[in-house]
Amino acid sequence: MLHSLKKQLSVPDLHLLIGTPDTQTMNSIFAYLEPLGYQLDSAADSDEVRNCLKNASYNALILDATLTDQNGIPLYTCLRMERIISPIILLAPENTLENLPRYLNSGADDIVTSPVHLLELEARILAAIRLATAHLTAVKLTWEGIELDAHAHTITCDGRHIHLPPMAFALLARLMKSAPNVVSRSELQNELYGDTPPNSDALRTYIHILRTQLEKQNKPILQTVPRVGFRLTPLS
């Protein structure tokens, strides 16, 4: 059940935009979410998505990964470049799961592969919105030259700006709050998805993204504690 996530958010107040040319998928999402009280708008292509964004604001965007602009650039990447800050959940073909890090590093918040599991889609939507909302009230954190400002949603490392997908951002914030202590896998999963984690091993992917970005900044501080969880260590 999604009780804990729904308890934190008022579903009737949530306005979502569904953008996909797949009529069957669109109809399935509407048939599932609309009776639950979500306010939904639909768009069949990139132009319609942009028109909707001109006329309304959305708590989250659910976009087909194949949507592009006139130059073939993924629509979700363009929207991030245009400073659209709403969480973006991508609908992607099943065989593109290995491309999850690329999607996330290019502007998406999360991904659901086809055929779409509607309960999982709802869980990911609610989790992304909850994290986006939580960032507005969190505090500034520092560890080993890394400064995280959750209110401004920014990270700097020795004065250099770092970009992280929102889920990886949330993981870093959670680890920084507890550093140098270990945070269990279950605690990190709860940070992302409440008590309804998706079936796929999303946590492993976000940990990989976070570790890679830290190592690029010469901060190899993310340690895996086998069978327990993860922690941030001091630089030796």
What does this entry look like structurally?
The chain is of the alpha/beta class and 236 residues long. It is 40% helix and 21% strand. It is built from 9 helices and 12 strands. Helix 7 crosses helix 9 (202-216). The longest helix has 17 residues, at 118-134.
Q: What is the structure about, briefly put?
A:
The chain is 40% helix and 21% strand. It has 236 residues and is an alpha/beta fold. The model has no long low-confidence stretch (mean pLDDT 86).
Helix and strand layout, with pairings?
Layout: H1 3-8, E1 15-19, H2 23-33, E2 39-43, H3 46-55, E3 60-64, H4 75-81, E4 88-92, H5 100-105, E5 110-113, H6 118-134, E6 140-143, E7 146-149, E8 154-157, E9 160-162, H7 166-178, E10 183-184, H8 185-193, H9 202-216, E11 222-225, E12 229-232
Parallel strand pairs: 1-2, 1-3, 3-4, 4-5
Antiparallel strand pairs: 6-7, 7-8, 8-9, 10-12, 11-12
Helix pairs in contact: 7-9
* Average pLDDT figure: 86
How is the largest sheet built, in terms of strand order? 2-1-3-4-5
Residue fraction in strands:
15-25%
Number of strands: 12
Topology pattern, helix = H, strand = E: HEHEHEHEHEHEEEEHEHHEE
Specify the helix fraction band: 25-40%
User: Count of helical segments?
Assistant: 9
Largest sheet: 5 strands, parallel
What structural class do the secondary elements suggest? alpha/beta
What's the overall geometry? globular
Distance between the termini: 44 Å
The whole-angstrom Rg is 18 Å
Low-pLDDT residue intervals, each spanning 5 or more residues: none
